[in-house]
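Task: sequence in, structure out. Protein: FlaA1/EpsC-like NDP-sugar epimerase.
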Amino acid sequence: MSEPLLLQHSEKNLLRTIVVGAGEAGVALARDLRRVSSFGLEPVGFLDDDPAKRGRRYGGRRVLGTLADLEEVLEHSRADVVVVAIPSMPPNEVRQLGRRAAALGATVLHLPPFLSALQRQIAGTDMRELQVGPLIGRPEMHVVSRHAREAIAGKRVLVTGAGGSIGSELCRQVYGFGPEQLIMLDHDESNLHRTQLELWGEALLDTENTVVADIRDSERLYQLFRDYRPQIVFHAAALKHLPVLERHPCEGVKSNVRGTQNLVEAAVAHDVERFVLISTDKAANPTSVLGATKRLAELVLESQQPATTVLTAVRFGNVLGSRGSLLHVVRDQLASGGPVTITHPDVSRFFMTIEEAVGLVLEAARMSHGSATYVLDMGEPVRIVDLVHNFAGLLNVRDVDVKYTGLRPGEKLTEELFGAGEEATPTDHPRISMTVAPPPPAGFRAGLRELYDAAAHNRPDEVSRHLRRLVPEYSPTPGLVSAGAPYPDGF
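Result:
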């Protein structure tokens, strides 16, 4: 590149952003992003392949180079986000751009192609999906650092639950870091098909990258670890809907606890370097089967004493944008004209975006040197009724009919990030804390065997007793549920 980079000072908490395309759409988009700070993005320059635009300024922001200069521009500008403002750009080129940006720790957002039909006029309302700040009460954080690439590049990486919302985003980011091999495991071939299509632009499901397997099947997992020899494992597969597991606790044990132990034992036996478990804030002083089984999964990691494998857990808040999450349900309820169901006027939750969640996982893989649990600073809990009204405002829905259904069994009014006996310890990342949880109780392994036997024979009352014994801080709550409220946690 011949043009020097003129670095602009970003407003506090805004993510430095490169806009791809200095045409009408890109210039209008950059203007709107600067005008509406709630988007959380601060344009610092453009990329455009038109040589006549090199070095020209649009709205005070310079064209810094062509798409071929992406890596150099990201390094010099310290940008965190790349927004593609060329609506006609083919999807495979967008994916390629995304992989290149991800390799440097940046995120790519794509202006949807249908906007090109709107007289090439870009208005702030067309970027509503970026406005997470008004919903979660804080700006979205760019969590993953460029150093995370060093932990992934050239390694064989296994992702379980690869077809889910978190798992598929993990696959996208990991793939961008240049692993030697990405192994995507899921028990649902339809989910794998969708993830492979997003990554490669085709999905024949006939490559070694996609693996259909059930984490409950220990022998199958040993075979896979023996054949693929993964060096890093990200364990995202789980049953995670709270009311479902309250009704079917045996299934929660089979997947969330026994499945995790199967994976950990296979990983340790085959000298995996790093194993990262995705847990939940509901594991801190749990009141639900979901929280108790996830806390047990954390304890399974604690109970291992591997010679070389580093075992790490990360705790998530509620992830906005994941399948079945709050925004999807509220959007559908508003669209149908019916009331929005919320369990309680004061119920609140910690919220994070998928990008923040995956960033936390990748940073944990980079930072961890021993058994620990990592937690992202997600600010203060957000009342769900406030989030619903803010979201409705973004959709231009003025009158929202809210129906309160009552807290259901296992639900808390407010979640916690750290449980009894846990203390937050700073890390080298300013927004991530870690804790070393208390060790498993005496007789833990024998208790697990009894729990697994009860679950295998589908005895829910016995499973509940074993959960309370193995997780002493587990205190089930009866809830105040109204009839017929099959909604995700908190709403």
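The chain has two domains: 15-131, 148-470.
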